[in-house]
TrEMBL record:
Residues 303-331 are annotated as: Disordered. It comes from Gordonia neofelifaecis NRRL B-59395. PANTHER family: GLUTATHIONE S-TRANSFERASE OMEGA-LIKE 1-RELATED, GLUTATHIONYL-HYDROQUINONE REDUCTASE. This is Glutathione transferase. GO terms for molecular function: glutathione transferase activity. InterPro entries: Glutathione-S-Trfase_C-like, Glutathione-S-Trfase_C_sf, Glutathione_S-Trfase, Glutathione_S-Trfase_N, GST_Omega-like_C, GST_Omega/GSH, Thioredoxin-like_sf. PROSITE patterns: GST_CTER.
Amino acid sequence: MTDIDPESAETYVAENQPYERDTRYIESRITRDGADGYPIEPGRYRLVVSYACPWANRSIIVRRLLGLENVISMGVCGPTHDRRSWTFDLDPGGVDPVLGIPRLQDAYFKRVPGYEKGITVPAIVDVPTGAVVTNDFPQITIDFELEWTEFHRPGAPDLYPEALRAEIDEVNAVVYRDVNNGVYRCGFAGSQEAYDAAYDQLFARLDWLTERLRGRRYLVGDTITEADVRLFTTLARFDAVYHGHFKCNRQKLSEMPVLWAYARDLFQTPGFGDSTNFDHIKRHYYEVHRDLNPLGIVPKGPDLSNWAEPHGRESLGGKPFGDGTPPAPLG
């Protein structure tokens, strides 16, 4: 069980309303030219994440694939949070050892005193000032890929190749609307009508993805790209959380053969499975969403050992890292 006080838990469902995600982010960027006041500078910035969060999980994967660990440090929040803030309860004394703060909101308040929008992960913090630079999660990974190239490891994949960017952007847009955010629109729907519409849209898009991936190994091109990272973090949570907790239950991922094999292929690719923590994922959703799961009981299942089963996708061609190499095994 968790130590979250149910009385302090956030409410996610608005009765008789469809779920609408708040996308008002701090949009400053870290760039080569430092146009927003934040130039590329190794060691200056700290990526704050939780392994539980799919949006943060993207940045964990991309940072590892590109080999940015030595230039952008990473602080890890615990899998749960209260109504207002993620916390550093995994660290000794509950304090981030670099930022010296117990709650991520402290870094937000350094940037915007009394910040009233969501205290979200991922967030990049400027270590010298202790202030959040950005929590604009879609832009964070793109900037890792395009602005930090001088510091990519040898053999790093090109996750956002120029020739494929338009197609990647097109795929990402519909996957975000119908799948990444679609599962939340099912789970946090405030009416039967809103749920039914979100459910139909989600599974129509999963059927579309099935057909797209039936004869090709990756979503765009013949190597892993930003598009695969974005879809993977939702698929990784599907059977463990979304199928039951969010009522996305037409089928489990493991009952959709093409998508299940695709997801296992990525999971078994260095950088993906080793950046996935199913325990944190399950604890977060079931313990935090008290309006969906009032007692915070975390289910024991499903058995997740089947993620290691052979996927057979090599026969479709393509190489995950193209002419590059995988990241080194985690120590």
